[in-house]
Amino acid sequence: MADRKAFPLRIDTALWAAVERLAASDLRSVNGQVECLLREAMKARGLNLAAPKPVKRGRPTKEK
């Protein structure tokens, strides 16, 4: 997670509730949903960003 930037965000409660509902319907966290919405907005404005690196999940591999 070293390549991620933490950022405090002040947001209207009605907008936050809508993002929470949207995130739940897409099976994402609110943070993931906000990032997805930001990427979609950037793409709509013509700025294509590289896809984020997938987070490695599960058990660590055994070292031999």
Distance between the termini: 26 Å
How many β strands by DSSP? 0
Report the uncertain regions: none
Provide the helix percentage.
Answer: 40-55%
List the secondary-structure elements in sequence, H or E. Answer: HH
Percent of residues in beta strands: under 5%
- Overall, the morphology is extended
> From the alpha-carbon coordinates, what is the Rg to the nearest angstrom?
15 Å
**Largest pleated sheet:** none
Q: What is the average per-residue confidence, as pLDDT, rounded to a whole number? A: 88
Strand-pairing-aware structural class: mainly alpha
Number of helices: 2
Overview of the molecule:
- It is a single chain.
- The chain is mainly α and 64 residues long.
- The protein has a domain at 13-44.
- The chain has 2 helices and no strands.
- The longest helix has 15 residues, at 30-44.
- It is extended.
- The two termini are 26 Å apart.
Short descriptors:
64 residues; single chain; mainly alpha; 44% helix
Topology overview:
Blueprint (H helix, E strand, L loop, with lengths): L12 H13 L4 H15 L20
Helix pairs in contact: 1-2
Offer a quick outline of the entry.
The protein has 64 residues and is mainly alpha-helical. It has two helices and no strands.
